[in-house]
Structure formats: structure tokens, C-alpha cells
Amino acid sequence: MAEPSFIEQSKLRFREGEVVFRKGEMAQQMYVILSGRVRLYVSEEPKGDWVEELTKGDFFGEASLLEALPRQHTAITLEDADLIAINRGTFLRMIRQSPEVAVKMMQRLVQRHRELGERVEALDAARPAKTSNGPVANLVSVLSGSPFPILSHGSLIGRFDPGTGVHPDIDLTEEDHNLSVSRRHARILCEHGLYFLLEEPDVANGTFVRGERVLPGEPRELKHGDRVGFGMVVLFFEKT
Questions:
Q1: CA-to-CA distance for 125 and 32, rounded, in angstroms?
Q2: What is the rounded CA–CA span in Å between residue 205 and residue 111?
Q3: Disulfide: which of 74, 208, 228, 234 matches 41 by Cβ 3.0-4.6 Å?
Q4: Pairing of strands 186-191, 170-171
């Protein structure tokens, strides 16, 4: 992935229990684990619910380099760990010089997404029903009236990909009779009770909020009742 000299120059040592980064911080770099274990927590403090535990060879923090959004998790070391820090410029240069890096990263991200989805479903099934009035949001189809719940950690919107067998969190395949929605079309993220819509790269038919095009890489905040379009599929955003 990189020359030994680069590894030595970019290597960071973290002691057990050290925070690598906190949720809400703006990203400066991604990390590759040389040794040790790292856990990603849902909240700003490293306690309570966590989404993933990573070991040697895994990477994390890459999403914030690709999107202009704050960190979505808090990362903490579970034991003494050596990490490689890679900034945005170095990351893009590595991909240009070695395309297989991008392919391996995409394969790992697909696997991670599938594993996390299965874990979230298992946790939701095991937990008792909540009675709190916390934020709940859906996209509701104008065509069919079908609701599409938005996951608390965010949802990928698109169509089923038969090539990889990957379903997006919000699968619009049945709504999209004109095949106008991309496989990976857009993403809705939740930060501190607010919801943001972000278009994925290389989308052909556009993403719209209240009739206005969402520019790639520029998150658009969603309000209750907003009309949202993915290609030719139109839904309403509901937050209760």
C-alpha cells in the first residue's frame, strides 16, 4: 500500500484507552491499523453503543475524507496500537498511482456495510420497543405511499445491484419504473437530530430537494415535509 519510509513517517502510537478522534470533529486524515484494536462508538463519548471493532489491516475514518462532513463516530483504542495516518492528498495520490488500492477499499467497504447492516438488524430485534419521543424519520413515496424508514446512523439510497447482491438501506427498485435512480444514488445522515441529504459520486439523473438540484459533495439539510427527488422518483421527508 505504501513504501516503508512512508509508513515510518506516518506511524502514530496510541496507548490503551486513547481517543483517536471524536464524533463531530472535522476530518483531517484516515487511519490504517498496524497493530492493536480500535472500536468505533456511536456517541461523542466512548461508551454505550458501538458499531464496529477493528484490528490489524483494517482502516477507518475514510468516509470523512471523501465527504465534507464531520466524523460520524468516536474512535478509541482498546489496547496499545500503532496506526498509519493518511491525509486527503496522500490518499488521492495513492489511488491514482495504484488503482488496486481503490478496488480493495471498495470491496472492504461493501463487506463492512453488509456486516454492519446485519449487526444493526440483530440489535434492533433484541432490544425492547422504545417509548421515547426521539427523532424518527421516513421517506414516503408519492407514487405508492410506501414509507422508507431512515436508520439512526444514516441510510444509503439507491437500487438493488444484482452484480454484487448489495441492497441499499432504502431500496427504490420497486418505485423506479424508469430506472432513473443510481445503484448508489444518495445518502441521508443524521447529526444531533438534524438530517442531511448528500448525493453520491457519479449520479446521472440528479438529486433534488424542493425542486432544487443538490450539488455533489454539498450536504442539504432536510425539513419535515420537504419534497425529495431521486431521478424521477419523488418522495416526501417526514420527521416525527
A1: 32
A2: 27
A3: 74
A4: unpaired
Q: What is the pTM (predicted TM-score) of this model? A: 0.46
- Best mean pLDDT range from 54-58, 74-78, 92-96: 74-78
User: What are the tens digits of pLDDT across the range 15-73?
Assistant: 999 999 998 888 778 898 999 999 999 888 988 888 888 999 888 887 766 666 788 88
The rounded Cα 77 to chain-centroid distance in angstroms is: 21
List the one residue out of 50, 22, 51, 54 whose CA is nearest residue 38: 54
Mean pLDDT of 78-100: 82
User: Candidates 3.40.50.1970, 1.10.3720.10, 2.60.200.20, 3.30.450.20; correct CATH number of 137-239?
Assistant: 2.60.200.20
Cβ pair 85, 91 in contact under 8 A: no
- How many Cα atoms within 13 Å fall on the side-chain side of residue 148? 25
What CATH architecture applies to the domain 4-126? Sandwich (2.60)
Using alpha carbons only, give the angle 8, 12, 13 rounded to the nearest 5 degrees: 120
